[in-house]
Write a structure and sequence with these properties.
The structure holds two protein chains of two kinds. By secondary structure, chain A is an alpha/beta fold. In chain A, 40% of the residues lie in helices and 14% in strands. In chain A, the strands form two sheets. Chain A has a nine-stranded mixed beta sheet. Chain A has a two-stranded antiparallel sheet with strand order 7-8. Chain B is α/β, with parallel strands linked by helices. In chain B, strand 12 (268-272) and strand 13 form a beta hairpin.
């Protein structure tokens, strides 16, 4: 809350270098699925994946993060492919005392990691369709594997109370998965899961077939109606509204900085860092600094103010925190107006 | 040699390798056709978005182009087309635009861009935010405030009249007529905005075009004013990758092929020097003046309306140090020959790299006229720009290391609307000849690059339709914000009702 207020003051002073509310650590870029829509890592890029760091070094990175940020997202690739992931999660919670740890996984290896799950506060699983036959083609695995992911998700949804985490499904909407999206929503309601939807991005822009699709628009409008009635749909109304027409939004990417497996801090956002055209990059490695503040000010010195409204990517992980930070009144109104949807609201955005 | 040996037959012939022609070619090639694109320029594809030769500054090479372009948030078909093929570069978002205003007494600066796009007031009231900025107050005086209703009436007019969509050419009316009685500073601000949009003086800007411009770029949505720059020159970052994609999909592109005459018939023929190209369908995707010449030369058609094409001059200056921090771009109004500026080292990657390595900076200045200024000799024009420039940025005096002036031919469209019978649309009076480009008549609200791209797609659709192939869906433009949408609806229905009432009264009198 203090961070939120101090960011509001920064905004009033036209300072766009906002402090993060959450840090996202990619423990590995290795993946065991090959999702058609994935533009980042995925199995087909495994040859180029950086080897995961040794546990001690990974812990050093988390320690630096903890000195400035208390909410952590662990993602990948597939984080369960990191050899020491259980130990890392355990120590992150017990030793470093992160207030909130979110794990983003594809759920394939979920059954082998019970040991770590009680240290996870939120478990986000990627699931785009319940139709194993078509979905297995989307994610590039045999049908049996897709079915086993479905089984894992059902099982671990039932064990939410036992482990003490809140489970959320993150679904990518594409022309292929759109017909099954409503069934997926029902599945989540039945299994007491939160669900968040992100439209498929191609080249940092919404996939053309979606942007011209009336079915897609109708589906998002339906989602808004469901959410008003209290369906467990994550993401704010403002975010869902943005998804109807994809209007530009005021982006503050430094609210959710990303750290690569080797400790490189990307600044100000992944698309700029990847473009490597001087607007962003990897200005500092967390293994070479003592505190988060040191890394953060080095990054700021290297690239100065991050830009806003690049109307570039429509990634939920950038839209949602940016909207939340820049439109406090909208969010307050939403919070008061739709009490039923509070469960799927504040701080529940998914990182891609 | 018999003419047949020089004759080439292709599926579809596209004349003009700019944004319109390449967009059409891409969409046809994606449906399996083999379009042939003919570009008149012998070296560079892309028309107004083309890259050009390099200039060397102290061992560093910078590629030139027609001029810096904005990719606006409403350029949705353009962005969607590029993204679909992974050709959409990571842009440089615009941060702020500076208004530099000079009257006979002094020079004043006010940052205006972000106030408009991030205004707390809903459209069409978002310009009120400017008055919350103390620097803006310093650029205006009491006279401006007392006559502000003139401004509001023009803004409201643009909300209530959609010249392109409702087919309102408003022939004979210009922006100059509308702002005649305005006060100096506000008049300068609007004329500056208009000149930046239209590259010419208010007296020459058709009112229909200006109202449509306001609607598309600013008055209906705050975020319509949000835009980005390309990461480097248009040729490198967009046109050349796009042309490669067209070739990859089976299209052919030929440079240095200037078509002089077309001949209709069961198959169309395009005469190009000694060569003849034939095809069942032709898409004419050249700029307005070239289209006007070609149509006149081919069909002797003198009565058609073509929007005017404008020339301009671009001055680029390199310095060995950077100026004081400030916005990356802006406009000059009042007593200046230059009309806008872009700090290239804050926009383009190669210049940014140079700035990091050497600490230097570079600026691009556009001069849109009038004709007598553009007719001045290079040295005279450069000298005047540099003198004026130092008055605004005195800290750079004595740090100039290179200067370059470029004259752009009259190819830039002055957006306007002619009557339905005289202004060519995508479909033309000649069967199987289609037009594409930002000068083409169409109810779409868009302008320039986006209009070129969207009319290119529509022309491709016309060809696809005639061949029974699947057409492409176009991306909708963002709708007006709710409040302004409500005003627009009220005004348009009110106007319709009034017209209906007047008509019924006339009938009654009869």
């Amino acid at each position: 809350m203090l961070n939120y207020a101090s960011n509001l003051i920064k905004l009033a002073r036209n300072d766009r270098h906002l402090n993060p509310g959450v840090a996202i650590y990619y423990v590995t870029t290795q993946c065991n699925l090959n999702c058609a829509y994935c533009e980042d890592f995925g199995a087909r890029r495994n040859d180029h994946a950086e080897p995961p760091l040794h546990l001690d070094q990974a812990m050093k990175i988390l320690r630096v993060i903890r000195s400035g940020v208390d909410a952590l997202f662990i993602t990948g690739g597939e984080p369960f492919l990191h050899p020491d992931i259980d130990e890392l999660l355990t120590r992150a919670k017990q030793e470093l005392k992160f207030r909130e740890i979110t794990l983003i996984t594809n759920g394939f290896l979920l059954a082998k990691h019970d040991a770590a799950l009680s240290f996870v506060d939120r478990l986000i699983v990627s699931l785009d369709s319940l139709n194993a036959e078509s979905w297995s083609q989307t994610i590039g695995v045999p049908q049996a594997s897709a079915e086993s992911i479905h089984t894992n998700i059902r099982n671990y949804a039932a064990r939410q109370k036992e482990f003490g985490y809140q489970m959320m499904v993150n679904a990518v909407l594409s022309p292929e998965t759109l017909p099954d999206a409503e069934a997926l929503l029902e599945f989540c309601i039945e299994n007491h899961l939160l669900i968040s939807f992100s439209p498929q991005a191609v080249n940092n822009w919404v996939r053309h077939e979606l942007i011209v699709s009336s079915e897609y628009k109708a589906f998002i409008e339906k989602l808004i109606a469901y959410k008003k009635r209290g369906a467990p749909i994550a993401g704010s109304m403002a975010y869902l509204q943005t998804l109807i027409n994809f209007q530009p939004y005021d982006c503050y990417p430094t609210l959710a900085p990303r750290i690569m497996p080797n400790g490189d801090l990307t600044y100000p956002c992944r698309p700029f860092e990847k473009a490597n055209n001087g607007q962003g990059g990897r200005p500092v490695n967390l293994l070479n600094v003592k505190t988060w503040d040191e890394a953060w000010s080095k990054a700021h010195a290297a690239y100065r103010q991050p830009p806003r409204t690049c109307h570039s990517c429509f990634q939920q992980c950038y839209i949602e925190p940016s909207l939340m930070q820049t439109q406090p009144l909208t969010f307050l109104y939403e919070y008061l107006r739709y009490p039923a949807s509070r469960k799927g609201n504040l701080k529940t955005y998914a990182a891609g | 040699m018999p003419p047949d040996e020089l004759s080439r037959q292709s599926d579809v012939l596209i004349i003009g390798g700019g944004m319109a022609g390449l967009s059409a070619a891409l969409h046809l090639a994606e449906r399996g056709l083999k379009p042939l694109v003919l570009e008149a320029d012998p070296r560079f594809l892309g028309g107004r978005l083309a890259g050009s030769e390099e200039v060397e500054v102290k061992g560093w090479h910078f590629r030139l182009e027609h001029g810096v372009h904005g990719i606006w948030s409403q350029y949705r078909n353009l962005q969607s087309m590029l993204a679909r093929h992974h050709l959409r570069p990571v842009f440089t978002p615009s941060q702020e635009e500076l208004w530099i205003y000079r009257d006979s007494y002094n020079t004043r600066k006010a940052a205006v861009g972000s106030a408009i796009r991030y205004s707390i007031f809903p459209a069409p009231l978002h310009y009120i935010q400017l008055f919350l900025r103390p620097r803006f107050w310093r650029t205006i005086d009491l006279r401006d405030i007392s006559r502000m209703f003139h401004v509001w009436s023009l803004l409201i007019m643009s909300v209530g009249i959609d010249p392109f969509g409702e087919d309102q050419p408003m022939e004979g009316l210009t922006l100059g007529d509308s702002v005649k009685n305005w006060t100096p500073a506000i008049r300068a601000f609007f004329i500056g905005l208009a000149r930046n949009g239209f590259s010419t003086h208010a007296e020459e800007i058709p009112l229909s075009g200006f109202l449509a411009f306001l609607r598309f770029y600013t008055i209906l949505r705050r975020d319509a004013w949000a835009f980005s720059y390309l990461p480097e020159d248009g040729g490198t970052s967009v046109i050349e990758p796009l042309a490669n994609k067209v070739r990859e999909l089976g299209g052919e592109i030929r440079l240095g092929e200037k078509v002089n005459r077309l001949e209709g018939g069961p198959t169309w023929k395009a005469y190009c020097g000694e060569e003849t190209f034939s095809a069942n369908q032709i898409i004419l995707a050249v700029d307005a003046s070239a289209a006007s010449f070609l149509i006149k030369n081919s069909f002797g058609e003198n009565d058609l309306y073509f929007p005017r094409s404008l020339a301009n001059a671009i001055v680029r200056l390199w310095f060995d140090r950077t100026p004081k921090p400030g916005p990356e771009s802006g406009m000059f109004t009042g007593d200046f020959v230059m009309h806008n500026f872009f700090w290239l080292d804050r926009i383009y990657a190669p210049y940014r790299k140079w700035n990091k390595a050497t600490g230097g900076s570079a600026i691009e200045v556009h001069i849109y006229g009038p004709q007598e200024i553009l007719q001045r000799a290079d040295a005279a024009l450069l000298a005047q720009v540099i003198t004026e420039f130092y008055q605004v940025y005195p800290e750079l005096r004595g740090h100039l290391i290179h200067q370059h002036i470029q004259r752009n031919a009259a190819t830039h469209t002055l957006p306007s609307l002619g009557s339905k019978e005289r202004h060519l649309g995508i479909e033309t009076p000649w069967a199987n000849l289609f037009c594409a480009g930002d000068w083409v008549r169409d109810p779409m609200p868009s302008f320039f690059l986006e209009r070129a791209c969207a009319t290119g797609i529509k022309a491709a659709n016309a060809v696809l339709k005639s061949r029974g192939l699947d057409e492409w869906s176009l991306v909708d433009y963002l709708p007006p914000e709710p409040f302004v949408g409500w005003i627009e609806k009220l005004m348009i229905t009110g106007r319709k009702r009034r017209v209906a009432k007047r008509n019924s009264q006339k009938q009654f009198r009869k």
